[in-house]
Amino acid sequence: MSHRFANSLYKKLRRMIIISNKIMIYNAVLAAIYVALTVINPIGTMAIQIRISEMLAVIPFFNRKFIPGMLLGLAAANFFSPLGLIDVATGVGIAVISYTISYFIKNVWINAVQYSVLCGIFVGLMLLMVLEIPFWFSFVTITISTLITTFLGTMLFSKVGHRILPNLK
C-alpha cells in the first residue's frame, strides 16, 4: 500500500516539475518577444509612442501564469529606453498595479482600459518630472496609443488565444 502511495506521489511531483518547466519556458519566450518587439520599434518610447509589444501586455489578463514573463519583458525592454532605470521602475510598477487590479476584475476589456489609463497616468507623470513634458499631452497620447494596442491584443487573444496560448494548468 505504501508503495502505491509513493509511486503516486512521485508521478504527481514529476508532473508538477514538468509543468513548472513549461511555464518558465513560455514566460521566457513571452519576455523575449516583448523585448524584441519593443527594441526594434523606433517609436516605442517617450511622449508619442506606439508600442506594438503592448498587445502582449494583455496576455496575463487571460492567464495569470504569464505575469512573470510580462514583468521580465517590460523590465528588459524599458532598460533599453533613453530613460533607463526610471523607465524600468515605472513600467514594472504599472504592470504590477494593473495585474493586481486584474485579480479582482475578470473582464479582459476593462483590464485593458485600466492598464492603458495607468500607463497614461504614470508615464505622463514620469515624463513631466524627468523631461518636463506637459502631463496632459503625455497622458492623452500614451493612453490613446496604449488603448489601441491593448484593444487589438485583447481582440486577437479573445478570438485565437486558445490556439496561440498554451493552457497551462
Description:
- With 169 residues, the chain is mostly helical.
- It has a single domain (2-164), classed as Arp2/3 complex 21 kDa subunit ARPC3, CATH 1.10.1760.
- It contains 6 helices and no strands.
- It has helices spanning 2-39, 59-62, 67-79, 85-104, 108-131, 135-164.
Summarize the structure.
With 169 residues, the protein is mainly α. It has helices spanning 2-39, 59-62, 67-79, 85-104, 108-131, 135-164.
Q: How far is it from the N-terminal to the C-terminal residue, by CA?
A: 29 Å
Alpha-beta classification: mainly alpha
Element string (H = helix, E = strand): HHHHHH
Largest sheet: none
Which descriptors would you attach to this protein?
Arp2/3 complex 21 kDa subunit ARPC3; 76% helix; 169 residues; 0% strand; mainly alpha; single chain; 6 helices
Give the helices and strands, then pairings:
Blueprint lengths: L1 H38 L19 H4 L4 H13 L5 H20 L3 H24 L3 H30 L5
Helix pairs in contact: 1-3, 3-4, 4-5, 5-6
